[in-house]
Amino acid sequence: MPKIKFPPYPIPSPSSLPSSPVSLADVRAALGDTEPNKTNAAAIRKIIGRGSYATIQKHLDAIRAERTPVPPVAPGAIPTAPGEAVAAIWAVAWAHAQASTLGRLEAVTVERDAAQSLAEIRAQDAAGLSAEIDARDLAAIEGVEAHMNELDEVQDSLDAANAQVEDLKAQLAAAQAEIERLGQAAVLAARDATIERQTMQAALDRQLDKFTELKAMVSHLTPATGKPTPQKLL
Question: Which of 17, 107, 173, 234 is the most buried (most CB within 10 A)?
């Protein structure tokens, strides 16, 4: 008998569906005084209780960008002074070149630190999302296993019930066969009884006929006194 197939995952109820998409204000309210670089989309979603991770991550990145300090703008490059320039002008140009280089180096360092911090934040976000997904997958697997165990128990009950039904069918068929046999035997017994009764009636009729004949003979041989004479009887 084929087993019943059920959906591997439970269907969410209408009350569990989000009523509206998560906005930037929702993420900002859930964030509160928490530093945006020290949390992730999974933690924010637990506070809000709805919304997709991609939308929450987008709003969280926007808030992080708002709170990230703007690196200083490096001054423009100064061309190398010609060989025939005055030494004083060359010294001033050289000083400006050093300042420009140091400014650019500082800007690159700040950008590097910001990129590294952002990479660490993204890594934390990915780790949080991965842990959340793993937890959801584990819960889903456990739910599927529980449903499969329930299905196995239901299937065993169905198999036992079907076996009982088949056994009852066999008993019913045997009872019907016995009833038919007894009916046929009753018919044969009734026929035999009828035949025997008819036979006995025929024998009785013959005896009555003989008795009637003997009675007639006795009446014919009996004289007026009502006592038969030996001569007449002989």
Answer: 107
